[in-house]
Specification:
This is Gamma-glutamylcyclotransferase. By secondary structure, the chain is α+β, with helices and mostly antiparallel strands. The protein has a single domain, classed as Gamma-glutamyl cyclotransferase-like (Hypothetical upf0131 protein ytfp), CATH 3.10.490. It contains three helices and five strands. The strands form two sheets. The chain has a three-stranded antiparallel beta sheet, with no helix packed on it. A two-stranded antiparallel sheet has the order 4-5. The longest helix has 11 residues, at about 75-85. Mean pLDDT is about 90; it is low at about 1-10.
């Protein structure tokens, strides 16, 4: 299985903040029965915008978003990574067709420990549009929109 350059940094958990969170539609479709752990977490330095049935996260100092850290079950990581990239319309670093970019960020567990994780952030063109005219989700929690 080929991975893009710089992405072979081991099997990182995923920080999810929208429809992939437990109880949401894409969690059932993509993650149910395929995770080793799901735990509450926060993502500092990010802001959440409302989207058409799902949210977008963008970088923003001083803000944080609420979500879960998802660890893939043994043997499922490669397929899960490919399926989530497809779901999030991520075609590789810096690709113009990306809706989201998959980036490495540090999520924070409730006990304060920091964990490197993959997170899907709105791609630059979309990010600019959101900053100009998007609707922020106060408190950064999709469940409380």
């Amino acid at each position: 299985m080929a991975m893009g350059g710089g992405e072979t940094s081991g099997e990182l958990p995923f920080f999810v903040y929208g429809t992939l969170r437990p109880g949401e539609v894409n969690h059932d479709l993509f993650l149910k029965g395929r995770t080793a752990a799901e735990e509450a977490a926060r993502l500092p330095g990010a802001l959440l915008y409302d989207g058409p049935g799902y949210p977008y996260a963008v970088p923003r100092a001083g803000s944080e978003i609420v979500g879960e850290l998802i660890t893939a079950a043994p043997g499922t990581y490669g397929r899960l990574l490919a399926e989530l990239d497809r779901l999030e319309e991520y075609h590789g670093p810096g690709r113009p067709l990306n809706v989201y970019d998959r980036v490495r960020r540090e999520a924070v567990r409730p006990d304060g420990t920091r964990v490197p994780a993959w997170v899907y952030l709105a791609a630059p063109l979309l990010e600019r549009r959101l900053r100009e005219s998007g609707t922020e989700i106060p408190g950064g929690d999709w469940f409380r929109r």
